[in-house]
Write a structure and sequence with these properties.
It is built from 14 helices and ten strands. The chain is an alpha/beta fold. Strands 1, 2, 3, 4, 5, 6, 7, 8, 9 and 10 form a ten-stranded mixed beta sheet that branches.
Length: 330
């Protein structure tokens, strides 16, 4: 089973703050970007991490360019409706896509008829923010630790079940990596989204779940969920009391949920670089950092070139996991 080192990706964090001006001068690019309103397309409902980042960027771009920036939630078809809207837009930097990693790095392999070629249909601008995934259990599960979870799974292979927001989702695959690195067998229970899965974990229908920290944090804080471990190299500031899997003796499952910014094909490099720098500076503002931390996210900006490499590297890793586990969209 391959090991995912997202720390290599995250090593490019904040590089966008030092993006050099391309052939077009910075003032010329700024003038072009301020010429009309921005539309930031979020392919998922309001309230989630994707929508939150879209609204933070909209506020920042409005302030910087004195031009309205609006968020459009183009929902449906696992994010494909919003992606299609951006694909068909003019490549001038005014229509942008904010999307979770899975839409870029998992779905191209997972979906037999995936309707996009990520490299041909979009221009990568920057990764925006990242959040650790967390293994949570319901209070009634009786599971107290990662060691306890592994022991139970080994005692009755296939009897212990775990929830995810869908077949082939990043959180499903995080569970598959965990199974591979611990040598256990658990039953995967797919839901249509994170909220119903979390509800069933809290209700005791399913004992545990791999989820992203922003979704679980409110329930961890109010005691309805117990966090066993996060799936990143270091403890998170949002929940410093939660150990990492490595601290619990499980190495090789370093998986982060992240969110990226893309533009339509044909967008000039100078515009992509300018927007990457804008995003880096907006997300580095002290009040914005507090908002991100409160939701379990951290800034993860980088240059367009570094973001492109990160997408390609992660796509190859997840393709290997999907193929080895014979996982395909249902």
């Amino acid at each position: 089973m391959p090991r995912i080192w997202f720390s290599l990706v995250m090593g490019a964090t904040a590089l966008a703050a030092t993006v050099p001006a391309a052939a077009q001068g910075v003032d010329e690019v700024g003038k072009q970007l301020s010429s009309e309103r921005f539309i930031l397309v979020s392919p998922f409902p309001p309230g989630g991490p994707t929508d939150t980042l879209a609204r933070i960027l909209a506020e920042g771009l409005t302030e910087r360019y004195k031009t309205p920036a609006v968020v459009e939630n183009a929902i449906g078809a696992a994010g494909n409706i919003g992606m299609d809207k951006v694909k068909r837009a003019k490549g001038d930097g005014h229509v942008l896509l904010i999307v979770p990693a899975g839409n870029l790095t998992i779905n191209p392999t997972l979906m037999p008829k995936f309707p996009f070629d990520i490299r041909k249909d979009f221009v990568p601008v920057t990764m925006l923010a990242a959040a650790p995934n967390v293994i949570v259990v319901g209070k009634s599960s009786g599971i107290k630790s990662i060691a306890d979870l592994i022991a139970r799974a080994k005692a009755k292979p296939g009897a212990l079940s775990y929830a995810s927001p869908g077949v082939g989702s990043g959180l499903h695959l995080a569970g598959e990596l965990f199974k591979g690195h611990t040598g256990i067998d658990m039953l995967h229970v797919a839901y249509k989204g994170t909220p119903p899965a979390l509800n069933d974990v809290m209700g005791g229908v399913v004992p545990l779940m791999f989820t992203n920290l922003p979704a679980a944090l409110p329930f961890i804080e109010d005691g309805r969920l117990v966090a066993l471990a996060t799936t990143q190299a270091r403890r998170t500031q949002a929940a410093p009391q939660v150990p990492t899997l490595a601290e619990e003796g499980v190495n090789g499952v370093d998986v982060t949920s992240w969110y990226g910014l893309l533009a339509p094909a044909g967008t000039p490099l100078a515009i992509a670089e300018r927007l990457a720098r804008d995003a880096a500076e907006i997300l580095a503002e002290s009040e914005v950092k507090k908002r991100l931390t409160a939701q379990g996210m951290t800034q993860a900006t980088m240059t367009p070139a570094a973001f492109d490499k990160a997408i390609q590297k992660e796509t190859a890793v997840w393709a290997g996991v999907l193929e080895s586990r014979h996982i395909q969209a249902q």
